[in-house]
Amino acid sequence: MSSPTPSIQFFEGIYEELSNVSLRRKRNSGIRTVLMTFDSLKAIEKFNSFTKRYANSMLLTDEEGVISVTPSSLKFVFGGPEGDEIERVNCEFEVEQEEHWERFMRFMNRYAETNGMAYTDKEKSTGE
After folding, report:
1. Would 39 disulfide with which of 19, 50, 98, 110, CB 3.0-4.6 Å?
2. What is the pLDDT of residues 46-80, one digit of tens each?
3. Which residues contact 97 (CB under 8 A, 6 or more apart)?
4. Amino acid 40: pLDDT
5. How far is 69 from 103, CA to CA, in rounded Å?
């Protein structure tokens, strides 16, 4: 039996490609925030958003199963000569419980390995 390839979906059956992810932790509360950036969304490019079911969540799937995340923020950043082309989409959500964070990090490690992404610690790389 083969393990499912790690994937991200806003709309069931449409697999998105993550461009970048930023992990943050609020000093006062300890709550972690994830900011995922997508340079493009296949669902929008193919106009499938009107024909596919959107459940107000993002599905992160890997060999352990499915993580259903409800974004706290979904921001479309436009650019181009006319200012009407989607440059990227930023999706943000918070992770409060430690076991949820650990599960998310296992997913991200698998997704990064499968998609040739690398982790860099900003604080360590800038000497802060």
Report:
1. 19
2. 654 444 555 578 899 999 999 999 999 888 888 88
3. none
4. 87
5. 12
The residue written with tokens 């970048």 in the block is: 20
End-to-end CA distance of the chain: 45
How far is it, in rounded angstroms, from Cα 93 to Cα 8?
14
pLDDT at 49: 46
* Residue 41 in domain: yes
CATH of the domain at 109: 2.40.30.220
